[in-house]
Design goal:
alpha+beta; Beta Polymerase, domain 2; two-stranded antiparallel sheet; 20 helices; 11 strands; binds adenosine-5'-triphosphate; binds magnesium ion
Protein backbone atom coordinates (compact mmCIF):
# COMPACT_ATOMS: atom_id res chain seq x y z
CA UNK A 1 0.00 0.00 0.00
CA UNK A 2 1.36 3.45 -0.91
CA UNK A 3 2.50 5.55 2.01
CA UNK A 4 3.06 9.26 2.14
CA UNK A 5 5.49 10.93 4.45
CA UNK A 6 3.89 13.90 6.05
CA UNK A 7 5.87 17.04 5.40
CA UNK A 8 6.11 18.68 8.78
CA UNK A 9 7.76 15.80 10.61
CA UNK A 10 10.76 17.86 11.61
CA UNK A 11 8.83 20.89 12.81
CA UNK A 12 8.31 20.17 16.49
CA UNK A 13 4.95 20.93 17.97
CA UNK A 14 3.51 22.57 14.87
CA UNK A 15 -0.28 22.67 14.63
CA UNK A 16 -0.01 19.85 12.11
CA UNK A 17 2.11 17.73 14.43
CA UNK A 18 -0.22 18.24 17.34
CA UNK A 19 -3.26 17.49 15.15
CA UNK A 20 -1.73 14.31 13.79
CA UNK A 21 -0.56 13.18 17.23
CA UNK A 22 -3.98 13.77 18.66
CA UNK A 23 -5.77 11.66 16.05
CA UNK A 24 -3.08 8.97 15.84
CA UNK A 25 -3.57 8.40 19.57
CA UNK A 26 -7.36 8.43 19.49
CA UNK A 27 -10.02 6.03 18.31
CA UNK A 28 -11.24 8.37 15.56
CA UNK A 29 -10.89 7.32 11.93
CA UNK A 30 -9.41 10.45 10.49
CA UNK A 31 -7.75 11.50 7.23
CA UNK A 32 -5.83 14.41 5.77
CA UNK A 33 -7.60 15.14 2.49
CA UNK A 34 -8.07 17.35 -0.54
CA UNK A 35 -5.84 20.36 -0.90
CA UNK A 36 -3.59 19.19 1.90
CA UNK A 37 -2.59 15.91 0.26
CA UNK A 38 -2.42 17.54 -3.19
CA UNK A 39 -0.06 20.25 -1.96
CA UNK A 40 2.35 17.98 -0.13
CA UNK A 41 2.58 15.72 -3.18
CA UNK A 42 3.42 18.87 -5.18
CA UNK A 43 6.02 19.85 -2.59
CA UNK A 44 4.05 22.97 -1.63
CA UNK A 45 3.48 23.95 2.01
CA UNK A 46 -0.31 23.72 2.40
CA UNK A 47 -2.06 26.78 3.80
CA UNK A 48 -4.94 24.94 5.44
CA UNK A 49 -5.17 21.52 7.02
CA UNK A 50 -8.21 19.69 5.62
CA UNK A 51 -9.38 16.76 7.72
CA UNK A 52 -12.17 14.25 7.22
CA UNK A 53 -13.52 12.26 10.14
CA UNK A 54 -15.53 9.08 9.67
CA UNK A 55 -18.14 10.02 12.24
CA UNK A 56 -18.87 13.21 14.13
CA UNK A 57 -16.42 15.89 12.95
CA UNK A 58 -17.78 18.52 15.34
CA UNK A 59 -17.20 16.31 18.36
CA UNK A 60 -13.70 15.50 17.07
CA UNK A 61 -13.01 19.21 16.53
CA UNK A 62 -14.03 20.02 20.11
CA UNK A 63 -11.73 17.34 21.45
CA UNK A 64 -8.83 18.41 19.20
CA UNK A 65 -9.23 22.03 20.17
CA UNK A 66 -8.65 21.16 23.83
CA UNK A 67 -5.06 20.54 22.67
CA UNK A 68 -4.73 23.24 20.01
CA UNK A 69 -6.51 25.95 22.01
CA UNK A 70 -7.44 27.86 18.88
CA UNK A 71 -10.69 29.56 18.01
CA UNK A 72 -13.35 26.97 17.24
CA UNK A 73 -16.11 27.67 14.69
CA UNK A 74 -18.86 25.10 14.41
CA UNK A 75 -21.15 24.86 11.36
CA UNK A 76 -23.81 22.48 12.65
CA UNK A 77 -25.93 22.47 9.47
CA UNK A 78 -22.93 21.27 7.40
CA UNK A 79 -21.47 18.95 10.06
CA UNK A 80 -18.17 20.83 9.82
CA UNK A 81 -15.93 22.83 12.12
CA UNK A 82 -12.84 25.00 11.80
CA UNK A 83 -10.10 25.70 14.28
CA UNK A 84 -8.18 28.89 13.71
CA UNK A 85 -4.77 29.04 15.37
CA UNK A 86 -2.15 31.80 15.04
CA UNK A 87 -0.64 30.36 11.89
CA UNK A 88 -2.93 27.63 10.57
CA UNK A 89 -6.52 26.83 9.91
CA UNK A 90 -7.73 23.29 10.50
CA UNK A 91 -10.96 22.39 8.69
CA UNK A 92 -12.77 19.26 9.85
CA UNK A 93 -15.69 17.65 8.04
CA UNK A 94 -17.63 14.45 8.54
CA UNK A 95 -17.16 11.95 5.71
CA UNK A 96 -20.27 12.25 3.54
CA UNK A 97 -22.06 11.18 0.39
CA UNK A 98 -23.62 13.99 -1.64
CA UNK A 99 -26.75 13.46 -3.78
CA UNK A 100 -27.58 16.09 -6.39
CA UNK A 101 -31.29 16.14 -7.21
CA UNK A 102 -31.22 19.09 -9.59
CA UNK A 103 -28.39 20.81 -11.45
CA UNK A 104 -26.45 23.56 -9.71
CA UNK A 105 -28.44 23.21 -6.47
CA UNK A 106 -26.82 22.29 -3.18
CA UNK A 107 -26.81 18.54 -2.58
CA UNK A 108 -28.40 16.37 0.13
CA UNK A 109 -25.74 14.85 2.33
CA UNK A 110 -25.46 11.54 4.21
CA UNK A 111 -22.73 10.16 6.51
CA UNK A 112 -20.26 7.85 4.81
CA UNK A 113 -16.82 6.25 4.77
CA UNK A 114 -13.69 7.98 3.46
CA UNK A 115 -13.90 6.19 0.10
CA UNK A 116 -17.46 7.39 -0.49
CA UNK A 117 -16.41 10.86 0.62
CA UNK A 118 -13.68 10.98 -2.01
CA UNK A 119 -16.31 10.22 -4.68
CA UNK A 120 -18.04 13.56 -4.08
CA UNK A 121 -14.96 15.64 -4.78
CA UNK A 122 -14.25 17.94 -7.67
CA UNK A 123 -11.02 16.71 -9.30
CA UNK A 124 -8.78 13.68 -9.05
CA UNK A 125 -5.95 15.80 -7.62
CA UNK A 126 -8.29 16.82 -4.79
CA UNK A 127 -9.67 13.33 -4.21
CA UNK A 128 -6.83 11.79 -2.26
CA UNK A 129 -6.73 11.09 1.46
CA UNK A 130 -4.01 10.01 3.86
CA UNK A 131 -4.93 8.20 7.02
CA UNK A 132 -3.83 9.65 10.34
CA UNK A 133 -5.75 6.99 12.26
CA UNK A 134 -3.99 4.66 14.66
CA UNK A 135 -4.69 1.41 12.77
CA UNK A 136 -3.63 2.42 9.23
CA UNK A 137 -1.54 5.55 9.76
CA UNK A 138 0.06 6.85 6.55
CA UNK A 139 -2.11 4.80 4.18
CA UNK A 140 -2.90 6.71 0.98
CA UNK A 141 -6.40 6.52 -0.49
CA UNK A 142 -6.23 7.49 -4.14
CA UNK A 143 -9.17 5.82 -5.92
CA UNK A 144 -8.99 8.07 -9.01
CA UNK A 145 -5.21 8.06 -9.57
CA UNK A 146 -4.88 11.63 -8.40
CA UNK A 147 -1.18 11.14 -7.73
CA UNK A 148 -0.65 10.34 -11.38
CA UNK A 149 -2.55 13.47 -12.42
CA UNK A 150 -0.53 15.60 -10.01
CA UNK A 151 2.63 14.25 -11.64
CA UNK A 152 1.29 14.89 -15.14
CA UNK A 153 -0.19 18.27 -14.24
CA UNK A 154 -3.79 17.43 -15.16
CA UNK A 155 -7.13 18.65 -13.86
CA UNK A 156 -9.64 15.84 -14.33
CA UNK A 157 -13.21 15.46 -13.07
CA UNK A 158 -14.33 12.22 -11.42
CA UNK A 159 -17.45 11.68 -13.53
CA UNK A 160 -19.26 13.13 -16.52
CA UNK A 161 -21.95 14.97 -14.56
CA UNK A 162 -19.54 16.81 -12.33
CA UNK A 163 -19.92 20.29 -13.86
CA UNK A 164 -23.69 19.92 -14.12
CA UNK A 165 -24.02 18.90 -10.47
CA UNK A 166 -21.88 21.78 -9.36
CA UNK A 167 -20.95 24.43 -11.93
CA UNK A 168 -18.69 26.22 -9.42
CA UNK A 169 -16.25 23.48 -10.39
CA UNK A 170 -15.82 25.23 -13.75
CA UNK A 171 -14.32 28.23 -11.97
CA UNK A 172 -12.35 25.98 -9.63
CA UNK A 173 -10.87 24.04 -12.57
CA UNK A 174 -9.60 27.22 -14.21
CA UNK A 175 -8.27 28.56 -10.91
CA UNK A 176 -6.23 25.39 -10.23
CA UNK A 177 -5.10 25.23 -13.85
CA UNK A 178 -3.43 28.60 -13.53
CA UNK A 179 -2.28 28.27 -9.93
CA UNK A 180 -0.28 25.14 -10.69
CA UNK A 181 0.25 25.74 -14.45
CA UNK A 182 -1.64 22.50 -15.08
CA UNK A 183 -3.70 21.52 -18.11
CA UNK A 184 -7.36 20.61 -18.15
CA UNK A 185 -7.57 17.02 -19.27
CA UNK A 186 -9.12 16.56 -22.73
CA UNK A 187 -12.42 14.92 -21.77
CA UNK A 188 -12.82 17.21 -18.79
CA UNK A 189 -12.41 20.18 -21.12
CA UNK A 190 -15.15 18.82 -23.40
CA UNK A 191 -17.49 18.27 -20.45
CA UNK A 192 -16.76 21.78 -19.28
CA UNK A 193 -17.57 23.24 -22.70
CA UNK A 194 -20.80 21.23 -22.87
CA UNK A 195 -21.87 22.50 -19.45
CA UNK A 196 -21.03 26.09 -20.41
CA UNK A 197 -22.99 25.77 -23.67
CA UNK A 198 -25.99 24.65 -21.59
CA UNK A 199 -25.67 27.97 -19.71
CA UNK A 200 -25.39 26.00 -16.50
CA UNK A 201 -23.71 28.88 -14.70
CA UNK A 202 -26.97 30.85 -14.86
CA UNK A 203 -28.41 28.27 -12.45
CA UNK A 204 -25.96 29.22 -9.72
CA UNK A 205 -26.92 31.83 -7.15
CA UNK A 206 -25.17 35.20 -7.37
CA UNK A 207 -23.60 34.48 -3.99
CA UNK A 208 -21.90 31.32 -5.19
CA UNK A 209 -20.59 32.97 -8.35
CA UNK A 210 -19.33 35.92 -6.34
CA UNK A 211 -17.49 33.59 -3.94
CA UNK A 212 -15.72 31.90 -6.84
CA UNK A 213 -14.75 35.18 -8.48
CA UNK A 214 -13.39 36.46 -5.18
CA UNK A 215 -11.26 33.34 -4.79
CA UNK A 216 -9.94 33.83 -8.33
CA UNK A 217 -8.84 37.36 -7.56
CA UNK A 218 -7.01 36.16 -4.46
CA UNK A 219 -4.71 34.11 -6.69
CA UNK A 220 -1.44 35.42 -8.06
CA UNK A 221 -2.34 34.57 -11.64
CA UNK A 222 -5.88 35.90 -11.52
CA UNK A 223 -5.58 37.56 -14.90
CA UNK A 224 -4.84 34.23 -16.61
CA UNK A 225 -8.04 32.82 -15.11
CA UNK A 226 -10.00 35.88 -16.21
CA UNK A 227 -8.64 35.33 -19.73
CA UNK A 228 -9.64 31.66 -19.60
CA UNK A 229 -13.12 32.55 -18.37
CA UNK A 230 -13.41 34.79 -21.40
CA UNK A 231 -11.98 32.22 -23.82
CA UNK A 232 -14.47 29.65 -22.55
CA UNK A 233 -17.17 32.22 -23.30
CA UNK A 234 -18.42 32.46 -19.74
CA UNK A 235 -17.80 36.17 -19.20
CA UNK A 236 -16.27 37.80 -22.28
CA UNK A 237 -13.72 40.48 -21.66
CA UNK A 238 -11.93 42.77 -24.11
CA UNK A 239 -8.16 42.86 -24.51
CA UNK A 240 -7.97 46.45 -23.30
CA UNK A 241 -9.90 45.56 -20.14
CA UNK A 242 -7.53 42.66 -19.53
CA UNK A 243 -4.60 45.06 -19.75
CA UNK A 244 -6.26 47.32 -17.22
CA UNK A 245 -7.00 44.36 -14.92
CA UNK A 246 -3.42 43.20 -15.10
CA UNK A 247 -2.25 46.55 -13.74
CA UNK A 248 -4.97 47.01 -11.17
CA UNK A 249 -3.91 44.10 -8.97
CA UNK A 250 -6.46 42.46 -6.70
CA UNK A 251 -8.68 45.55 -6.53
CA UNK A 252 -9.24 44.83 -10.20
CA UNK A 253 -11.96 42.55 -8.88
CA UNK A 254 -14.35 45.51 -8.82
CA UNK A 255 -13.33 46.61 -12.30
CA UNK A 256 -14.02 43.06 -13.43
CA UNK A 257 -17.47 43.01 -11.81
CA UNK A 258 -18.22 46.30 -13.57
CA UNK A 259 -17.15 44.87 -16.92
CA UNK A 260 -18.93 41.51 -16.77
CA UNK A 261 -22.15 43.04 -15.50
CA UNK A 262 -22.94 39.86 -13.57
CA UNK A 263 -26.37 40.34 -12.05
CA UNK A 264 -27.86 39.27 -8.77
CA UNK A 265 -24.68 39.28 -6.75
CA UNK A 266 -25.01 40.24 -3.11
CA UNK A 267 -22.72 43.25 -2.88
CA UNK A 268 -22.63 45.96 -0.24
CA UNK A 269 -23.55 49.59 -0.93
CA UNK A 270 -19.89 50.49 -0.54
CA UNK A 271 -18.89 47.88 -3.11
CA UNK A 272 -21.61 49.09 -5.49
CA UNK A 273 -20.08 52.56 -5.38
CA UNK A 274 -16.60 51.17 -6.14
CA UNK A 275 -18.03 49.18 -9.06
CA UNK A 276 -19.74 52.29 -10.44
CA UNK A 277 -16.53 54.32 -10.14
CA UNK A 278 -14.57 51.49 -11.75
CA UNK A 279 -17.10 51.45 -14.58
CA UNK A 280 -16.33 55.12 -15.25
CA UNK A 281 -12.60 54.62 -14.87
CA UNK A 282 -11.68 54.84 -18.59
CA UNK A 283 -13.60 58.13 -18.88
CA UNK A 284 -12.00 59.48 -15.70
CA UNK A 285 -8.54 58.62 -17.01
CA UNK A 286 -9.27 60.28 -20.36
CA UNK A 287 -10.48 63.44 -18.63
CA UNK A 288 -7.43 63.59 -16.38
CA UNK A 289 -5.13 63.00 -19.34
CA UNK A 290 -6.41 66.08 -21.12
CA UNK A 291 -6.61 68.58 -18.26
CA UNK A 292 -4.19 70.74 -16.34
CA UNK A 293 -6.97 72.67 -14.63
CA UNK A 294 -7.17 72.30 -10.84
CA UNK A 295 -10.94 72.27 -10.74
CA UNK A 296 -11.22 69.52 -13.38
CA UNK A 297 -8.65 67.42 -11.54
CA UNK A 298 -10.54 67.94 -8.29
CA UNK A 299 -14.04 67.23 -9.58
CA UNK A 300 -12.86 64.17 -11.54
CA UNK A 301 -11.51 62.61 -8.36
CA UNK A 302 -13.29 64.04 -5.33
CA UNK A 303 -16.17 61.54 -5.22
CA UNK A 304 -14.12 58.43 -5.91
CA UNK A 305 -13.42 55.79 -3.28
CA UNK A 306 -9.81 55.29 -2.14
CA UNK A 307 -9.73 51.89 -3.90
CA UNK A 308 -10.37 53.61 -7.22
CA UNK A 309 -7.88 56.41 -6.50
CA UNK A 310 -5.24 53.79 -5.76
CA UNK A 311 -6.21 52.06 -9.00
CA UNK A 312 -5.62 55.28 -10.94
CA UNK A 313 -2.14 55.64 -9.41
CA UNK A 314 -1.33 52.08 -10.41
CA UNK A 315 -2.66 52.45 -13.94
CA UNK A 316 -1.10 55.85 -14.61
CA UNK A 317 2.08 56.40 -12.59
CA UNK A 318 2.58 59.47 -14.78
CA UNK A 319 -0.37 61.14 -13.05
CA UNK A 320 1.68 61.48 -9.85
CA UNK A 321 1.76 65.29 -10.05
CA UNK A 322 -1.96 65.50 -10.67
CA UNK A 323 -2.62 63.23 -7.70
CA UNK A 324 -0.44 65.47 -5.53
CA UNK A 325 -2.44 68.50 -6.68
CA UNK A 326 -5.65 66.65 -5.87
CA UNK A 327 -4.47 65.74 -2.36
CA UNK A 328 -3.70 69.43 -1.72
CA UNK A 329 -7.04 70.56 -3.16
CA UNK A 330 -8.84 68.09 -0.88
CA UNK A 331 -7.69 70.21 2.05
CA UNK A 332 -8.95 73.52 0.61
CA UNK A 333 -11.79 75.00 2.67
CA UNK A 334 -14.40 76.93 0.70
CA UNK A 335 -14.34 80.69 1.31
CA UNK A 336 -18.09 80.83 1.44
CA UNK A 337 -20.84 78.51 2.68
CA UNK A 338 -24.61 78.18 2.46
CA UNK A 339 -24.95 80.54 5.42
CA UNK A 340 -23.32 83.32 3.42
CA UNK A 341 -25.88 82.83 0.66
CA UNK A 342 -28.71 82.84 3.17
CA UNK A 343 -27.54 86.07 4.76
CA UNK A 344 -27.32 87.69 1.35
CA UNK A 345 -30.86 86.77 0.51
CA UNK A 346 -30.32 84.01 -2.03
CA UNK A 347 -33.53 81.96 -2.09
CA UNK A 348 -32.91 78.60 -0.43
CA UNK A 349 -33.04 75.48 -2.59
CA UNK A 350 -31.22 73.47 -5.18
CA UNK A 351 -29.52 76.55 -6.59
CA UNK A 352 -27.30 76.77 -3.52
CA UNK A 353 -25.28 73.79 -4.62
CA UNK A 354 -24.68 75.25 -8.10
CA UNK A 355 -23.66 78.65 -6.74
CA UNK A 356 -21.36 77.26 -4.08
CA UNK A 357 -19.73 75.04 -6.66
CA UNK A 358 -19.28 77.96 -9.06
CA UNK A 359 -17.49 79.97 -6.37
CA UNK A 360 -15.43 77.00 -5.19
CA UNK A 361 -14.37 76.29 -8.79
CA UNK A 362 -13.01 79.83 -9.04
CA UNK A 363 -11.23 79.26 -5.75
CA UNK A 364 -9.70 75.95 -6.86
CA UNK A 365 -8.45 77.55 -10.07
CA UNK A 366 -7.01 80.43 -8.02
CA UNK A 367 -9.13 83.04 -9.77
CA UNK A 368 -10.46 83.90 -6.34
CA UNK A 369 -7.89 84.00 -3.56
CA UNK A 370 -9.73 85.47 -0.56
CA UNK A 371 -13.10 85.44 1.13
CA UNK A 372 -13.50 89.09 0.20
CA UNK A 373 -13.11 88.28 -3.49
CA UNK A 374 -15.50 85.36 -3.09
CA UNK A 375 -18.19 87.60 -1.62
CA UNK A 376 -17.64 90.12 -4.41
CA UNK A 377 -17.97 87.34 -6.96
CA UNK A 378 -21.27 86.41 -5.36
CA UNK A 379 -22.63 89.84 -6.23
CA UNK A 380 -22.06 89.12 -9.92
CA UNK A 381 -24.30 86.06 -9.69
CA UNK A 382 -28.07 86.36 -10.14
CA UNK A 383 -30.23 85.88 -7.09
P1 LIG B 1 -7.17 25.64 -1.75
O1 LIG B 1 -5.70 25.51 -1.70
O2 LIG B 1 -7.67 26.57 -2.81
O3 LIG B 1 -7.83 25.86 -0.40
P2 LIG B 1 -8.42 23.12 -1.56
O4 LIG B 1 -8.29 21.90 -2.42
O5 LIG B 1 -8.05 23.00 -0.13
O6 LIG B 1 -7.63 24.25 -2.29
P3 LIG B 1 -11.01 23.96 -0.68
O7 LIG B 1 -11.93 24.89 -1.40
O8 LIG B 1 -10.42 24.39 0.60
O9 LIG B 1 -9.90 23.59 -1.73
O10 LIG B 1 -11.79 22.60 -0.50
C1 LIG B 1 -11.22 21.48 0.17
C2 LIG B 1 -11.52 20.23 -0.60
O11 LIG B 1 -12.94 20.06 -0.68
C3 LIG B 1 -11.05 20.22 -2.05
O12 LIG B 1 -9.73 19.76 -2.16
C4 LIG B 1 -12.04 19.26 -2.70
O13 LIG B 1 -11.68 17.93 -2.48
C5 LIG B 1 -13.32 19.54 -1.94
N1 LIG B 1 -14.16 20.51 -2.63
C6 LIG B 1 -14.20 21.85 -2.44
N2 LIG B 1 -15.10 22.42 -3.24
C7 LIG B 1 -15.67 21.44 -3.94
C8 LIG B 1 -16.69 21.37 -4.93
N3 LIG B 1 -17.31 22.46 -5.37
N4 LIG B 1 -17.03 20.16 -5.41
C9 LIG B 1 -16.42 19.05 -4.95
N5 LIG B 1 -15.44 19.03 -4.06
C10 LIG B 1 -15.06 20.20 -3.55
MG1 LIG C 1 -8.38 24.53 1.38
Amino acid sequence: MAKLKYSAKKKKKSVLDRTINFFANSTYHTYLVGGYVRDITLGIEPIDIDIVVEGDAIKAARALNKQLKGKLHVYKEFGTASIITEDKRVDLASARIEKYNSPAQLPHVYPSTINEDLNRRDFTINAMAMSISRDNFGELFDPFNGLQDVKNGLIRVLHKNSFIDDPTRIFRALRYKNRFSFKIEKRTKLLMKEAIDKKIINHLTGQRILNELKLIFQEQKYEDTVRDISNFKIYRIKKKDLDILQNLGQDGFYYYLARIKANGMPITTEEKKIIKDMNNLPKTLARLEKTKKNSTIYYSLCDLSETVLEGICRLRPGFGDKMKIFRKLQKVKPFITGNDLKRRGFPEGKEYKRILRAVFTQQLDKKITSRKQALQYLKTLKK
